[in-house]
Amino acid sequence: MPILARCVQISRSLLLAACLLLPGLLGGCAAVAVSLAGAGAGAGITHQVNGQASRTFSAPLTRVDDAARLASRKMQLEVSEVATIERGQVTKARVSGLEITMEMQPLSPTLTRVDVVARKNFFLVDGATAQEIVTQIERALDAIALQEQAEAASEASARNAAARASELAPAQSRKNNSKRKSAI
Questions:
Q1: Where is this region: Disordered (predicted)?
Q2: What share of the chain is helix, strand, coil (3-state, %, to 5)?
C-alpha cells in the first residue's frame, strides 16, 4: 500500500476513534457530542483528502522525475531523500516548515501518477502548496518537451543543410570543371 494511502487510512481511523469516544467523554451532552464529532470527523477527512494533490501524466517515470527535480530546484525545495519503493519512487523535501512528500507511480511505460502532500504536522496539511508543486511539475514537463522539440528541429535543420550542401557540391564542381575546360 502506498505511503500516502496509509497516512490517509491512519487519519481516518483516528477520526473514527475520536467520534466513538467523544460522546462518552461528554456524558450528559450526548446530542451535542455526536453533532460535534460528526462535524469534526467530516471536516478532518475532507481536509486530509483535499490536502493531497494528485495528477496522472502521459509521460514515463524517468521524465516525470526529471520534471519533479526541475520543479523542486525552481521552488527551492530542500530535497532530503529520493527512495525507490515497490511501485515507483518517493521524494521527500522541506520548505518553510512544511514536509513535502512526492510519490510517483508508473501506471504503464508512458503513464505516471504523482501524489503530493505538503504537511505542516500530523494534522495540518497545505493543499495549496501541494497543488502548486503538481502544477510546477506539469510546467517543467512542458518545458522539457519544448526543449526536446527545439533540439529535434535544430538537428533536422542541420541535417537538411548538410544534405543541401552535399547536393550542391557536385553541381558546383561540374560548373567549375566546365569553366576550366572553356578557358583551355
A1: 155-184
A2: 65, 25, 15
